[in-house]
Every structure is written in C-alpha cells, then in structure tokens.
Design brief:
Length: 98
C-alpha cells in the first residue's frame, strides 16, 4: 500500500528553507551558483538565487517579499505573486520546506 505525500501549501506564516539534501554552491568553472540536490543540478537566475538565499527558515514569506521589494526597488504587490509561485513550485519539487 502506497501512501501519498500531502502537498505543502504556502501561507503567510510559512518560513521556507532548503531541504536537508539541497544546497547552494558556487561553481568557479562556470562562474555561477548551482542548487545541488541528489541526482539534480539547477542553475538559478539572479532573482531565483536571491529568493533561495532567503530560504533560511527564519524569514516568513511576507518578510521575504519585503526584503526583495527593497532590494529590487519594486512594488511589493508586483513581486509577491512571483515569489509565492516560485516558493510553491520549489516546494512541489521537494527542494524547499514550507
């Protein structure tokens, strides 16, 4: 009998963090950051990397959005949906814990 994994759903109280088996590492050969996971490597763009760096288990989603809005000098309401979609997607891929 197989048990199904319940999908974690992002909320304002979520404090995203990278799963234990996931890490950020700089690749000097490519001069780029990589997200390493067992048998997978992701090459995040600059914005994705900034979101992932805030996935420390300390920041709530609204705090992450506020920090990124300040960093990019962008309206909070414009970036919040993109940040939330990114975090939910990475949670669905088992890379981020909500």
């Amino acid at each position: 009998m197989q048990s199904r994994r319940q999908r974690a759903v992002l909320s304002a109280q979520s404090r995203p963090q990278l799963k234990r088996h996931v890490r950020l590492q700089f690749d000097p050969v490519r001069n780029a950051w990589a997200v390493l996971s067992p048998e997978k490597v992701f090459w995040p763009d600059e914005v994705s990397l900034d979101i992932l760096r805030l996935c420390d288990g300390q920041h709530t989603v609204p705090q992450m959005v506020d920090e990124l809005a300040g960093q990019y000098d962008a309206p909070r309401q414009d970036i919040a949906p993109d940040v939330e979609e990114f975090l939910q997607d990475w949670s669905d891929r088992f890379l981020v814990t909500l």
